[in-house]
Amino acid sequence: MTPPSRLLVRDLDQLVTHRGAGAPLRGPALSDVELIGDAFALCEDGRVAAVGPMRELPAIPGDLEELDGRGRCAIPGLVDCHTHAAFAGDRVAEFSLRAAGAGYEELHAAGGGILATVRATRAAGAKGLADAVHRHRGWMLRAGTTTFEAKSGYGLDRDTELASLRAIRDAGGSPTRLGAHAVPPEFDDADAYLDFALAEVLPDAAKLAEAADVFVERGAFDAQRARRYLAACRDAGLALRLHGDQFSEAGAIPLAIELGARSVDHLEATTEAGVRALAGSDVVGVLLPASALFLGRPMPPARALVDAGAAVALATDFNPGSAFCESLPLVCALACTQLKLSPPEALGACTVNAAHVLGRADRKGRIAQGYDADFTLLDVPDWRYVAYHLGGDLGIEPIIAGRRALT
Ligand code: NIG
Ligand code: FE
């Protein structure tokens, strides 16, 4: 019999994790962290067995791997709950055009944007797509992300959508079917495309995906079509997510609340009524400041949302067009400098609350007994460097299920 795997991370300068369990963190609870100085975390069989100050470290008989935490801080493994990692190719030419003044929506309307990535992703084939997701997963891991969600949505045909979901699942991610991202060129009307997506793809997609997502926006899908798509996905057993209020308020928040969605994501265009509605609901608002920065758009009303009592999460939105950024530490820096969240609020938003969006909050997002032993170790003197060192080298070492994930 193989001995149980045990890892002791010891002599950490700091270990930080949010208090409370159960529901997403709202209001003051989003700032409520437990900070342990001179700390240890003991992992057994992939779970956290004990955590505390070194002076309380019990004698541990038997085989044990030790990891020296001196000069380092441990935060919970970061959870990226919104990425579009299943894509091939790039949009660097479009990026250059945008730098010269072209608009993102204008490029999309001219058949570029999302549809350019659809062409590249279809051409990559299942193997090319799996390789791309694997590479992107490595980038995320090196940035400290230990749990990730990724969406399909650059296939839009049956084979590429299913290959995207398989590639995400095989890379260890949480797959979301973004079947309503854009109307692909072989359909000239959104209703005919949805007929196909629901009848021909959804039955098999629902066996691979955990959630469904839709882009509710002018030039994409209106609220009525989104309702039809999401209701069918819910009936097929999927959790619901929405891209909403990115450029305009097109009814995504009321629809998310009506359908009991897990989240509504973006919210750069959300006004006061939307903030109030979200705060009174169980829907998590997922904020994507790297996307707002990358497109030169207004930032989402994060402070107002948190102060009103809404549950918010932070994510990268990693994709080749609107947010070519896989770094949650950079997102935390944007949260503190642009969204006016504090470092504890930013951390809670991309750990505990992000885990809720993925339906994994019972196992992910905290360093606490019984949780999965996923940590992000930082080679820094204070854990808040995760947001403070803007785009800097944090000496990140991810631990997943009690094992060093980069060695
Ligand atoms: O979340 N807004 C819709 N979808 C993505 C962007 C996709 C792309 O530009 O390729 C987003 O920003
Ligand atoms: Fe997105």
Topology (SSEs and partners):
Blueprint: E1 6-18, E2 33-44, E3 47-53, E4 65-68, E5 73-76, E6 78-80, H1 92-99, H2 104-109, H3 114-142, E7 145-151, H4 158-170, E8 174-180, H5 190-208, E9 211-214, H6 223-235, E10 239-244, H7 252-259, E11 263-266, H8 272-279, E12 284-287, H9 289-295, H10 302-308, E13 312-314, H11 328-337, H12 343-349, H13 352-357, E14 375-378, H14 385-388, E15 397-400, E16 403-404
Parallel strand pairs: 1-4, 1-5, 6-7, 7-8, 8-9, 9-10, 10-11, 11-12, 12-13
Antiparallel strand pairs: 1-2, 2-3, 5-14, 14-15, 15-16
Strand content: 15-25%
Number of strands: 16
Helix content, binned percent: 25-40%
Radius of gyration: 21 Å
The biggest beta sheet reads:
8 strands, mixed
Q: Unreliable stretches, pLDDT < 50, 5 or more residues?
A: none
Q: Cofactors and ligands present?
A: N-(iminomethyl)-L-glutamic acid, fe (iii) ion
Structural class: alpha/beta
Order of helices and strands: EEEEEEHHHEHEHEHEHEHEHHEHHHEHEE
Total helices: the number is 14
Mass-distribution shape: globular
N→C terminal distance: 24 Å
Rounded mean pLDDT is: 97
Structure description:
- β15 (397-400) and β16 form a beta hairpin.
- Helix content is 36%, strand content 22%.
- The strands form two sheets. Strands 1, 2, 3, 4, 5, 14, 15 and 16 form an eight-stranded mixed β-sheet that branches. The protein has an eight-stranded parallel β-sheet with strand order 6-7-8-9-10-11-12-13.
- With 407 residues, the chain is of the alpha/beta class.
- α4 packs parallel to α5, α5 (190-208) runs parallel beside α6 (223-235) and α8 packs across α10.
- It contains 14 helices and 16 strands.
- The longest helix is centred in the N-terminal third of the chain and has 29 residues, at 114-142.
- The protein has helices at 92-99, 104-109, 114-142, 158-170, 190-208, 223-235, 252-259, 272-279, 289-295, 302-308, 328-337, 343-349, 352-357, 385-388, and strands at 6-18, 33-44, 47-53, 65-68, 73-76, 78-80, 145-151, 174-180, 211-214, 239-244, 263-266, 284-287, 312-314, 375-378, 397-400, 403-404.
- The model has no long low-confidence stretch (mean pLDDT 97).
- Bound molecules: N-(iminomethyl)-L-glutamic acid (NIG) and fe (iii) ion.
- Fe (iii) ion is lined by residues 82, 84, 243, 317.
